Amino acid sequence: MDSIDARLVNTLQAGLPVCARPFDAVAATLDVPVDEVLSRLQCLLDDKVLTRFGPMFNAEKIGGALSLCALQAPAGRYDEIAELVNAFPEVAHNYERDHLLNMWFVVATEQPEQAAVVIREIEQTSGCQVYDMPKQEEFFIGLQLTVQETS
Q1: Domains in the chain, ordered, with CATH?
Q2: Using CA atoms, how far apart are residues 5 and 31, in angstroms rounded to an integer?
Q3: What is the CB-side half-sphere exposure of residue 112 using CA atoms within 13 A?
Q4: Angstrom distance (rounded) from CA 32 to CA 139
Q5: N or C: which end of the chain has fewer CB within 10 A?
Q6: CA angle, corner 69, sides to 86 and 124, nearest 5?
Q7: Which of 47, 49, 48 is nearest to 6 (CA)?
Q8: Is the dihedral of CA 111, 113, 119, 124 positive or negative?
Q9: How far apart are alpha carbons 19 and 25 in whole angstroms?
Q10: Bridge partner list, 103
Q11: How do residues 54-86 score in pLDDT, each as one tens digit?
Q12: Mean pLDDT score of the chain, rounded to an integer?
């Protein structure tokens, strides 16, 4: 990751400007052409430096559901099960924990009843019991991590 990529990620963490051409505004901030901004963003996604780029919605306020889930993936099948879980479009992100329940992920659905259906499908596909921990209260932390150049 060079200095432009680092600046791009740091800029985008604060959100896109609300305007007719937000990537033009980002390009102007970074003093690089908009085509380069878009190309670099796509490369960061393709190279899995970024796992996701898109808006964040409050699922409940638009009629959906959001739930933190966990499962115990056998060590020899962790990567396989992570791939199965991540294949569900309702899985927002997935991360490994050093814990008996070693895989944690978020399920976000358009309608509340869909969450239970997705969780059952994950259980059937993976062969692992999923522990469903629906959100009870929302906290906004506003975490931004400063990215440094690595090359």
Answers
A1: 3-46 (no CATH), 59-134 (3.30.70.920)
A2: 12
A3: 6
A4: 36
A5: C
A6: 60
A7: 49
A8: negative
A9: 8
A10: 71, 96
A11: 877 777 788 888 899 999 999 899 999 999 999
A12: 91
